[in-house]
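Customer escalation, tier 2.

The customer says the design service returned an amino acid string that "doesn't look like it belongs to this structure." They asked us to rerun it and document both sides in this ticket. The original structure tokens are below, unchanged.
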């Protein structure tokens, strides 16, 4: 299975915990992690993968232009967002739009976007929790169905048209409140 982590390599994005989870994941299922993004932690993370004996299972692709992302995301089986902090993750929504189920840490806005219907959540900074969530999803045989639901959810809740409608509702509500005051 191909795990895609579209994350810049900064501490707050938690990529270290995906790498720390890889020995457990690969002992249970056939999987590789593909890291798409660059950043100041790259050397440290490459050394960590080597130290843990999973360098052959972790690919550092570096930064990729946005135009390449749909193809890269679609080539995966599961997107991983091991963030330590996150507002609303546009990258998670992009993965879901490409019919990729998502496993994400339970931080910030991620639980609003990701739930059991489209993948699942794990505890932040916890390689064991991350590993078991990934293993359960890969063994569950539901990746295609989860991915289809992920796309449907993005289209229903997060498309530009839906967001524009929601912004309009909020503005109308604020205007109405102002006139009522």
């Amino acid at each position: 299975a191909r795990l895609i982590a579209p994350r810049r390599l900064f501490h707050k994005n938690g990529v270290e915990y995906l790498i720390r989870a890889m020995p457990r994941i690969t002992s249970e299922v056939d999987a590789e992690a593909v890291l798409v993004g660059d950043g100041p932690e790259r050397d440290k993370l490459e050394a960590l993968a080597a130290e843990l004996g999973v360098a052959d299972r972790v690919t550092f692709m570096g930064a990729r232009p946005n135009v390449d992302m749909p193809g890269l995301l679609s080539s995966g089986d599961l997107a991983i967002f091991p963030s330590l902090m996150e507002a609303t993750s546009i990258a998670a929504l992009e993965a879901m739009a490409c019919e990729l189920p998502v496993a994400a840490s339970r931080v910030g806005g991620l639980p609003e976007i990701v739930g059991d219907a489209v993948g699942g959540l794990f505890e932040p900074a916890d390689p064991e929790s991350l590993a078991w969530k990934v293993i359960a999803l890969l063994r569950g045989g539901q990746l295609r169905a989860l991915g289809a639901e992920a796309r449907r959810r993005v289209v229903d809740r997060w498309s530009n048209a839906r967001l524009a409608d929601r912004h309009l509702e909020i503005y109308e509500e604020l205007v109405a409140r102002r006139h009522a005051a």
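Tier 2 assessment: The sequence is consistent with the input. The first strand starts at residue 2 and ends at 5. The first helix runs from residue 15 to 28. Sent an explanation to the customer and offered a walkthrough call.
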